[in-house]
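Repro:
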Amino acid sequence: MTTVRDRDLARLRAMTPAEKLRVAEALWRDARALTEAAIVRRHPDWNREQVRQETRRIMSGDRA
């Protein structure tokens, strides 16, 4: 019985390095957009630069 995980792994193994990079970039962009949206929702009074700075801080791994 093939599981979803097995199919996903087979798909990933079949990808070229360039395809894997495109997928990783898309995931990074999506994570950044979701992070930014969460910050805007949490801090509706912040200006664009404050949101960008906080997004950069979080995306760089600083959770403090």
